[in-house]
Design goal:
The protein is mostly helical. The chain has helices at 23-34, 49-61, 72-83. The protein is globular.
């Protein structure tokens, strides 16, 4: 008898804010580029003023708290808007 094994990866995305750097910031910037909120030439992996403003614009358009901080609600909506 063969058992079916299901692999799951359920790692939470980090909370991001101005000053952060790294792969999660690049992911955020790529999502913002795909949705038309961010210029691909600004994709650096550094969460600077331009990234913060793009996040605020997204948050404002989708009636989220406009604070420029990418927490669970912003991550969820970014993914939902992109893949729906």
């Amino acid at each position: 008898m063969i058992q079916e094994v299901q692999a799951t990866a359920n790692k939470e995305l980090p909370i991001l804010r101005k000053g952060d750097t790294g792969g999660a910031v690049k992911l955020l910037q790529n999502l913002l580029i795909a949705l038309g909120y961010f210029d691909k030439d600004l994709r650096t992996g550094n969460f600077l003023e331009q990234t913060e403003q793009a996040v605020k614009n997204f948050q404002s358009e989708y009636n989220l708290q406009v604070d420029g901080i990418v927490g669970a609600k912003t991550w969820d909506l970014l993914g939902g808007v992109l893949w729906d």
